[in-house]
């Protein structure tokens, strides 16, 4: 069993990389990818605590935005962490999140939510990438809502008056940087309308031309028709089909290994990287 999309508390997950590795081992996974948002900060801890029989696929979930403002998340896997251009792109995105958060907090204050940047930052682990889930956790801690899911459903969704866009590379630019760093690019939850507007089918041609390697077909936010359509697109363009939990610990309902990537598909994906970078004990 291989799960190619998980998060730790170095972004918006609630488990440390160590706990994530231990849970993956207990769940019987044979492979797990750590893909925190726009950061590789959790890689070293995950590597240091890797368990026998569990392969570690290191990566990041890169925040992207199309020219017409649609949010796209691109999983970069098996890339060289020393690549300067990719590192700088992720750093710029992380830095921009701070200004964005301040604007969202100001809008909430104007609507009589008593929340501060300090309240939000209190929800972060050291070195974690700031994101809306941390604001959601702060609102829960202040008693405004009962859960992250409720916060996003009611006030932090993409169509909310509190939503603020932020700098993100286009999907094509992100793919190009991942490929230049020797990795592979997989578009995540591309048909998840629960997250707002989704990319058009025609967009995939541009992504493939940029070097897209795979599509996250199997994800809890994809309906059966979504999965069938994405599978057809993957077949049409010769892309790898992956499955992932998008696990966030207690932050979401998603459970490890609830969607998986077949070994044969992962082997095809790994062969597209410019070096063997899977870590094993």
Report what the structure shows.
With 281 residues, the protein is of the alpha/beta class. The protein has a domain at 99-154: DNA polymerase, domain 1. It has helices at residues 17-26, 43-48, 84-110, 117-121, 132-141, 148-154, 171-180, 203-210, 224-237, 263-271, and strands spanning 2-6, 31-34, 55-65, 71-77, 184-188, 214-218, 240-243. The chain has a seven-stranded mixed sheet. Helix 5 (132-141) packs across helix 6 (148-154) and helix 7 (171-180) runs parallel beside helix 8 (203-210).
- What's the SSE pattern? EHEHEEHHHHHEHEHEH
Query: Unreliable segments (pLDDT under 50, ≥5 consecutive)?
Result: none
Strand content: 5-15%
For this structure, the CATH topology of the domain at 99-154 is DNA polymerase, domain 1
Can you tell me the overall shape?
Answer: globular
Strand order of the largest sheet: 1-2-3-4-5-6-7
Tell me the distance between the termini. Answer: 17 Å
Number of strands: 7
- Under the CATH scheme, which class of the domain at 99-154? Mainly Alpha
Give helix % range. 25-40%
- Please compute the radius of gyration using only Cα atoms: 18 Å
Q: Which structural class is indicated by helix and strand composition?
A: alpha/beta
Indicate the mean pLDDT. 93
